[in-house]
Specification:
Helix content: 40-55%
Oligomer: single chain
Order of helices and strands: HEHHHHEHEHEHEH
Radius of gyration: 16 Å
Strand content: 15-25%
CATH superfamily: HAD superfamily/HAD-like
């Protein structure tokens, strides 16, 4: 987990136990806010994905429509924006996100040597975010392209899940229709 990116958020973290967050918005990276860096979703070859997941390849990632949606939630009172990925921890990922203009309060990456399934990892990280800090929340809006991840997190009583591919596709179709 990486610290928040703004001084305002660093100061407010000290008061978390006194706060109630109405909403937590959780965005995946690959095929949600950016096109996937590798072909893991196609062939499930983790070693190949690790080789594809380089600093320079990440610099050229194409933004998807949900990337632009984050600005609607970041900085909103009593809300948190979480970027969550099952990618193995890379020290440079926060730099890439900063260079790309992604604003967030928390970044979750897969800890090194963690072999949990992506769905189990993501669910556990979100539960720990809430329980360890003893924060009061309203809803967790979880946006991910993977059905298993959505089902796992969706089993939490406060989680509402969204299919990232569907949302991105609808945004593109809506944009095309507006241009006609």
């Amino acid at each position: 987990m990486n610290p928040p990116r703004t001084v305002k958020n660093v100061i407010s973290l000290r008061n978390w136990r006194k706060k109630t967050f109405t909403d937590i918005y959780v965005f995946d990276i690959d095929n949600t806010i950016f096109e996937s860096v590798g072909s893991y979703e196609e062939d499930y070859d983790l070693d190949k994905f690790r080789k594809d997941n380089t600093f320079f390849k990440n610099l050229s990632l194409k933004k998807l429509p949900l990337f632009f949606a984050i600005k609607n939630y970041f900085g909103k009172p009593n809300s948190l924006v979480v970027i969550q990925t099952a990618r193995e921890y890379k020290w440079w990922l926060p730099i890439i996100l900063w260079l790309k203009g992604v604003k967030y309060d928390f970044l979750f990456q897969r800890p090194k040597r963690n072999i949990d399934s992506a769905s189990s990892l993501k669910r556990t990280q979100l539960v720990n975010l809430i329980l360890w800090r003893k924060i009061e929340i309203g809803n967790v809006f979880f946006i991910d392209d993977d059905k298993q991840n959505r089902e796992s997190v969706g089993s939490l009583p406060y989680a509402i899940t969204f299919d990232a591919e569907k949302l991105n596709r609808e945004a593109i179709i809506g944009f095309i229709n507006r241009r006609k």
